[in-house]
Specification:
- This protein has 190 residues and is mainly beta.
- The protein has helices at 56-64, 77-83, 93-97, and strands spanning 18-23, 29-34, 37-41, 46-51, 66-70, 101-102, 112-113, 118-129, 134-145, 164-167, 170-173.
- 11% of the residues lie in helices and 34% in strands.
- Strands 2-1-5-8-9-4-3 form a 7-stranded antiparallel β-sheet, sandwiched between helices. A two-stranded antiparallel sheet has the order 6-7.
- The longest helix is centred in the N-terminal third of the chain and has 9 residues, at 56-64.
- It is globular.
- It binds flavin mononucleotide (FMN).
């Protein structure tokens, strides 16, 4: 294999492209798109988002210490892109994107996005200034999961939600399923 050597950069893809809802203690709320996010601890459940201080959302998160990670679907792709290129300083992105705020279960100041199949309610535990971004490490206080994807056995069929990923500037739906956790070592049924 012949390879080019590039200068250091962010090339961990695919990444999520989630809609983060946020708000301050005065009742202002907003939505913005975040790709630099992920799980960081199983128990207690913790996540991170990395945010540039220039974002309008940054001030809201600083004020309330709360945010919601709303997973994005094919139907939400346009909104995810829009909320990532326009600022809540200038417009109400909820209204422009036709998205509906609904109450969080555990958060005081931040609504969830109704149209998203999974809303992850987070409270900031700590942060670290890394350079361009402030990384917030947060506890997951509650998860709202759309009943529409609960099958008759009580399994949450997330694969049916049409989640999207972000890779090197483009948004993608998922292709076909390639395996399940542990399938590489599972014994075949005779
Ligand atoms: C796909 C995508 C991923 C993004 N990821 C991040 C991110 O991880 N952190 C961040 O601070 N901004 C990220 N942005 C940029 C913000 O979403 C964008 O600047 C947004 O307009 C900020 O909105 P606000 O000013 O209303 O807070 C991303 C944008 C897009 C389109």
């Amino acid at each position: 294999m012949s390879k080019q050597i590039w200068k250091p950069g962010n090339m961990v893809y695919p990444a999520p492209a989630v809609l983060v809802s946020c708000g301050d203690r005065d009742g202002n709320t907003n939505l913005f798109t975040v790709a630099w996010t992920g799980n960081v601890c199983t128990n207690p459940p913790m996540v991170y988002i990395s945010v540039r201080p220039s974002r309008y959302s940054y001030g809201l998160i600083e004020d309330s210490g709360e945010f919601v990670i709303n997973l994005t679907t094919e139907a939400l792709t346009r909104a995810a892109d829009y909320c990532g290129v326009r600022s809540g300083r200038d417009q109400d992105k909820w209204k422009v994107c036709g998205l509906t705020p609904a109450p969080a279960e555990k958060l005081q100041y931040v609504p969830v996005v109704s149209e998203s199949p999974v809303n992850i309610e987070c409270r900031v535990r700590s942060f670290q200034d890394l350079g361009s971004h402030r990384m917030y490490i947060a506890d997951v206080l509650a998860v709202q999961a759309d009943n529409a994807y609960l099958d008759e056995n009580g399994r949450f069929a997330l694969e049916k939600a049409g989640l999207i990923a972000y890779s090197h500037g483009d948004y993608f739906g998922f292709g076909k399923k390639l395996g399940s956790f542990g399938y590489s070592v599972r014994k075949k049924k005779k």
